[in-house]
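Notes to self after the Tuesday call (sharing in case useful).
The group wants a holo model before anyone commits to mutagenesis around the pocket. I volunteered. Ligand is iron/sulfur cluster. Logging inputs and output together so the record is complete.
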Amino acid sequence: MAELNVLQVSPELHEAQWWEAEPNGKVHCYLCPRHCHIGRGQAGFCFIRTNHDGKLYSLGYGAPAALQPFPARSMRSGGLRKLRRLRMERAS
Ligand code: SF4
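Result:
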């Protein structure tokens, strides 16, 4: 399998959790039920966790895909109405 050159080593690079090293240089990620065994320089099925020199790194750490401005609890207690009202005010 071809080696991926997606990993930019930087101070922001975050070592992943929920994995263990294997004697053959691969790492075993058990974060999700796929249980990937990832070779050096390769990424798991999700392409967000990658093996660099026998350590597993999470490429998405600190880079959320979405942010929720209101906590879920607020949504249950009228937060959704407040959000709609704010949107209507902005639209007018
Ligand atoms: S798909 Fe990603 S999170 Fe799931 S086991 Fe594989 S590398 Fe880990």
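Two things stood out.
The pocket of iron/sulfur cluster is lined by residues 29, 31-32, 34-36, 44-46, 49 (CB under 6 Å).
The longest helix spans residues 72-91.
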